[in-house]
Amino acid sequence: MLTTTTSTLQNKNIEYLGVVTSEVIIGANVVRDIFASLRDFFGGRSTSYEQVLVQAKDTALRELQEKASAMGANALIAVDFDYETIGARGSMLMVACSGTAVKQSH
């Protein structure tokens, strides 16, 4: 499915079908927290957290595309991602994704 952050599709007529959203919350385990704390202290990238973020983003985008497809869409426009930490000590990561489901014609 064509997916874009732009608000239109160049040279395409589109029919707007509606807004779709997807939210994914994923826990960051204790081992990742320990290694992230060490990375924070010594410097460097936390690849373990980056992998969790990529997994959550990919899942949210896939769910967004599935919801749009169920509405009859063949494209998503104006896609946006928001990232938050939630939980008692920020131990969970949330990715919220939204976009507009559209049907494009040639």
Key features of this structure:
106 residues, alpha+beta, Translation Initiation Factor IF3
Structure at a glance:
Helix content is 35%, strand content 41%.
Structure description:
With 106 residues, the protein is of the alpha+beta class. It has a single domain (2-105), classed as 2-Layer Sandwich (Translation Initiation Factor IF3). It has two helices and four strands. The chain has helices at residues 30-42, 47-70, and strands spanning 2-3, 13-27, 75-86, 92-105. Strands 1-3-4-2 form a four-stranded mixed sheet. A hairpin with a 5-residue loop joins strand 3 and strand 4 (92-105). The longest helix has 24 residues, at 47-70. The protein is elongated, with a radius of gyration of 17 Å. The two termini are 15 Å apart.
> Based on CA inertia axes, which overall geometry fits?
elongated
Measured distance between first and last alpha carbons: 15 Å
Task: Return Rg in Å.
Answer: 17 Å
**What's the pLDDT, averaged over the residues?**
84
Note the topology:
Elements: E1 2-3, E2 13-27, H1 30-42, H2 47-70, E3 75-86, E4 92-105
